[in-house]
Amino acid sequence: MSNVTRGKKFIKRPDDTPMKKEIENLKSDIKNLDSTAAEINASLDRLKLDSATVEKRKALQGEMKEIIAKQSAFKTERSAIQSQIKNVEEQMKRKIAEIQRLTGKTSFRSVAEIDARVKSLEDLIGSGDLKLAEERRYVKEMTSLRKLRKDFAEVDAQQSSIDNDKKKITELKEQVGKIGNREIQSRFETIQKELDEINTSSKSIYDQRSQLMDKRSELRKLKDSKYDQIRKLKSDFDVEFTKFKEQLSEEKKKRDAEWKAKQEEEKQIKRKEEAQKKLEEASVPAFASEINEIHGLLSYFDPSYKKPQKSILANVTNSSFDAKTNIRKVEMPEDVVVLKKEQQSFYEGSATKKSKKKNTRSKNFTVEPDVIVSLSNLAIPLPVKSEDVVKTIETLKSTLRALEEKQDEQTQKNIEKAKEEIAKLNEEANVEGA
């Protein structure tokens, strides 16, 4: 595992002390501005006209509004009449133009002049003194004059209409003259004069109030600028603090990634160690514990038995039973009496002693507790009397031979199984790392 890790990066939190101090100064400025504005408002309250003058001006202004409303109505009415006059004048102009068109090509100016000329022509024709050519010419002229007389009848009608238009225009102009009499205009001028006098007398007050209000407006602008500065300070700090949190989050992500990588590295090392351990355990010759245990039992039941020197089993694993040093405690079968065994051979001295001791053994045959456990582990019957020991030894030897014969085969199977488990662990590790 790699011991080289990145040192923790220190990310300094933005210091808001200068910002808070500056904001406090700005708030103090704003407080002073508010105090000054309050003084100005108090001065404005003192700079007021007396109530009588205010009431008089209010009344005059109300009356002025009424007069202005009336004048506006008069103006609208006059405008409507003026519009009528203009329309009548335009009609009259068209009628005069029509008369001029009808009378422009003749020297006659009226029907009477035409009638007089026709009568004089009739008298000339009636005298009989005219020549035929003259008579025909006069007859033709009379025909033209009679036709012209019909046109002049239309001129008379137009002229009558023109006279009526002139009369109507005169009447409309008289109406205009009656609208908006002098009394209303005079009252308007009087009110305006009184208001001007009030304004002149109060000009000083208005000027002072105007100056104070201008100063108050300047204070408001300055106050707004102070608030803008506060908002900017907070906004700038928020930007810095947001950047700080982003850096902090980024650093945490890096640390988490490093920790995760370290954990993964440790997992891989642990897997390798487990795999190595499995392989080492599988490489140990099979049945090593059982074979070693059998050697110990054979040494126990037959003190003359010597463990083969070529066997390496005792170096590989410890059996559950050691003929000299094992002190494991177990529960014993009910029909076995456990006593402290004296260190002696199963087959001793003369026949008399042997017989005597044999009888004693038959009566009080004992076996070490660990021997009982080992035999039970190997599924070998426990000798309940000394005569059964020979059979037990033979069983141990036959079991030993059987285990030794299968040892290499089983060891290879164990190795293959361990390799399969290791491959499975590696596959799982690859899936987790994907």
From TrEMBL:
Keywords: Coiled coil
GO terms of molecular function: mRNA binding
Spans annotated as Disordered: 246-275
Domain of life (superkingdom): Eukaryota
CC per GO annotation: endoplasmic reticulum; nuclear outer membrane-endoplasmic reticulum membrane network; ribonucleoprotein complex
One Gene Ontology term from the biological process aspect of the record: intracellular mRNA localization
UniProt keyword annotation of Zinc present: no
Ranges in a coiled coil: 23-50, 78-105, 155-201, 386-432
Name under which the protein is recorded: Nuclear segregation protein BFR1
Biological source species: Candidozyma auris (Yeast)
